[in-house]
Every structure is written in structure tokens, then in C-alpha cells.
């Protein structure tokens, strides 16, 4: 396969937390390592030894970060332990300029930001078979506290309502059986890249 694609797409993958997005993407990237590029995030943390600005991250000051927030430059941004991180629209465009498709794994608010941007994106929603099954997976993953699980479940209901609006997504994949769901995702995305 050629290592670059003409007119590569931006693919937005969303869906409730615990629905299986990371599991599906990990497989997709492993199966097609040449097809996708990763956007470089901005961060207010300082570079560690060996890290280069613009490679691992765009390293910026808190003031610059706030400026970018005010300009609506970010698709998503968040603060962890006092450090801010964000995915900018420009960073996603850089990936497509290099001839690689860019997949964004983002939440509903980020999806809305992409819809409001000039990115030419395809929207894929990964839907759990049911809210009960989603709860089972979140518990099974064992990475969340009870409080976090409840928060994720109430956010999931909002995401499902949003996804139910006709035309919100180009493709809805129900992640019931992982093999089947993966094949559907792989076929759809490789179809976009063909
Ligand atoms: N089809 C499936 N059937 C059963 N279990 C699954 C399936 N797909 C994923 N899982 C399991 O569900 C759990 C949640 O999956 P994963 O971490 O990929 O979700 P996610 O959507 O990426 O969540 P987050 O948005 O919180 O990162 C994992 O333990 C994973 O192994």
C-alpha cells in the first residue's frame, strides 16, 4: 500500500466511554500502520529530556494556551493535574497535509466542534448493544470508581440521544460482537481511504 493517500479524510470516532473505541482503534492501527497519522497535541507542561517541540507535543505557555482556547482553536482540551492538553484543528490539518488519514477519538462536545469547523470529516459512532452492557464493560474494565462509572453512564445517555438525531453520524457501528464490529469498522474506514 502507498504510504500516502491523496485527499486523506479526517475520521471522527465517538461513542460512550466503555463502548470499545480504544479496543477497536488499537486493532485498526495495528492492521494498517501506514495509513494513519496522529495529530500533535498542545500542552502547557514543559518538554522532558529528549522531547522536541512540534514532535511529541506543541509546548506552549499557559497564556498561549488560553489564547488558543479563546480563538476556538481546539477540538477538545482538558486539564489534568494542573497541566492543560488540547487537540487543535490546525494539528489535524497538518496530518492530512502529510497524506495520512487522521482518526480522532473524541467526546460529544468535540464532535460538535468538528462539525462547526471547516474540517471535512466523516463521523462514526460506536454504540453499545445496550446501556446495561455498557455498565458491565465499564465495571469489567476495572479502571473506574463507582462515582466515575455513574458519571460515564449519565454522559452515555446524552451521547446516545445526540447520536439518535438523524444525520449526526455517517456510520453507526453497534459493538456487540467485537469481531463483527471490527470488520464493519475496518471495511468502512478502508473504503474511505481507497
Ligand atoms: N464487543 C465487545 N464485547 C465485550 N467487551 C468488549 C467489547 N469491546 C470492548 N470490550 C471491553 O469493554 C471495555 C471498554 O472498552 P474500551 O476501553 O475500548 O472503551 P472506550 O470506548 O475506549 O472507553 P473510553 O472512552 O473510556 O476510553 C474493555 O474492557 C474492553 O475489553
Automatic annotation (TrEMBL):
Its EC number is 2.7.4.8. It comes from the Eukaryota. GO terms for cellular component: cytosol. This is Guanylate kinase. It comes from Pyronema omphalodes (strain CBS 100304). PROSITE patterns: GUANYLATE_KINASE_1, GUANYLATE_KINASE_2. The keyword Transit peptide does not apply. NCBIfam families: guanyl_kin. Coiled coil: none annotated. Keywords: ATP-binding, Kinase, Nucleotide-binding, Transferase.
Amino acid at each position: 500500500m502507498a504510504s500516502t493517500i491523496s485527499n486523506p479524510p479526517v475520521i471522527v470516532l465517538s461513542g460512550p466511554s466503555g463502548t470499545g473505541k480504544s479496543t477497536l482503534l488499537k486493532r485498526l492501527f495495528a492492521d494498517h500502520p501506514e495509513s494513519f497519522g496522529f495529530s500533535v497535541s498542545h500542552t502547557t507542561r514543559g518538554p522532558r529530556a529528549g522531547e522536541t517541540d512540534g514532535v511529541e507535543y506543541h509546548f506552549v505557555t499557559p497564556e498561549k494556551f488560553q489564547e488558543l482556547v479563546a480563538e476556538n482553536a481546539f477540538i477538545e482540551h482538558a486539564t489534568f493535574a494542573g497541566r492543560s492538553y488540547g487537540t487543535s484543528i490546525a494539528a489535524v490539518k497538518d496530518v492530512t497535509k502529510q497524506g495520512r488519514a487522521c482518526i480522532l477519538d473524541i467526546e460529544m462536545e468535540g464532535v460538535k466542534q468538528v462539525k462547526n469547523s471547516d474540517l471535512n470529516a466523516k463521523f462514526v459512532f460506536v454504540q453499545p448493544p445496550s446501556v446495561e452492557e455498557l455498565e458491565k464493560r465499564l465495571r469489567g474494565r476495572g479502571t473506574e470508581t463507582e462515582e466515575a462509572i455513574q458519571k460515564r453512564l449519565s454522559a452515555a445517555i446524552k451521547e446516545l440521544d445526540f447520536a439518535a438525531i438523524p444525520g449526526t453520524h455517517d456510520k453507526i457501528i453497534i459493538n456487540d460482537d467485537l469481531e463483527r464490529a471490527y470488520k464493519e469498522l475496518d471495511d468502512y474506514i478502508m473504503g474511505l481511504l481507497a
